[in-house]
Amino acid sequence: MDAYPHQFSGGMRQRLLIAMAVALRSSVLIADDPTTVLVVTVQAQSMELLHDLRTEQDTALVLITHDLAVAAEHADRVAVMYAGSIVEAGPVADVFAAPATPTRADSSTRFRAARTGESRCGTSPAALPTCGRFMLERPDRGTLRFDGPDPLSLRGKELLAWRRRVQMVFQDPSASLDPRLNAAELIGEPWRTHRDLVPRGDRDRRVRRLLDMVGLREADARRYPQELSGGQRQRNGIARALALKPDVIVCDEPVSALDLSVQAKVLNLLAELQADLGVSYVFISHDLSVVRHVADR
């Protein structure tokens, strides 16, 4: 009751939003991908809760989802959209029995290491010391080793230099990217601290290069996070992590909030960047199918 949203996992924040939505006992509840960032067991619990509340409060539920399994299990009628238009609609059994618009997402990428577990099991907090966020989280015990001394013992310039080498891509770019900065400013912001890494006169060219590397257009440089799609925001976050030329990137659930087709594109992008730049990944995920595809260990 006394915790703040930034102290919750992504799944806990989503459950809090569900509680806020049902508190008013509305006639209609619009659930916009309510289970996207949740692990499978918590997805089932959340959807069961919504189903029970719909029955108890006589509430109509409009469910928006990219997860066909969720739609098949919980919808009475379904409308399939493509490119902003409804392309087929009808009773859920009819639509799923003879789909007119099959889609397929494929991802076959390889990374260095993965960490997995259910929500609140400690996967994300365990990674925070790895990326140097020592002012926010400190381990209760143990040591961390990466190419030299324990970074928990570093201070001043040594700690700053170590932090440049280990960057992070966060689970929710909507929360991690400053909405007051456009895409170019977000990418270049780390250079305010690491001033000697990229000469001032070369920074605009470097931003354009990073935008191109992650599949964003030059015109996107002037757009703010709220003007980008979820996949574009995550690409912006990846470009920001790459700005400091790190040796390791901690990817904390980088695709959990994205639909399947965008997940595949982001995972393939990360694989291509690793092949081109030689960067290592620590990949945190609750999705075992993603881990199976991306991890070497």
UniProtKB/TrEMBL annotation:
Record flagged with keyword Phosphoprotein: no
Entry-linked Pfam families: ABC_tran
All copies of domain ABC transporter, residue ranges: 63-297
Signal sequence range: 1-31
Keywords, alphabetical: ATP-binding, Nucleotide-binding, Signal, Transport
Keyword Lipoprotein belongs to the record: no
InterPro entries: ABC_transp_ATP-bind (IPR050319), ABC_transporter-like_ATP-bd (IPR003439), ABC_transporter-like_CS (IPR017871), P-loop_NTPase (IPR027417)
GO MF annotation terms: ATP binding; ATP hydrolysis activity
PANTHER family: D,D-DIPEPTIDE TRANSPORT ATP-BINDING PROTEIN DDPF-RELATED, TRANSPORT ATP-BINDING PROTEIN
Family classification: Belongs to the ABC transporter superfamily.
Name of the protein: ABC-type glutathione transport system ATPase component
Species lineage: Bacteria, Bacillati, Actinomycetota, Actinomycetes, Streptosporangiales
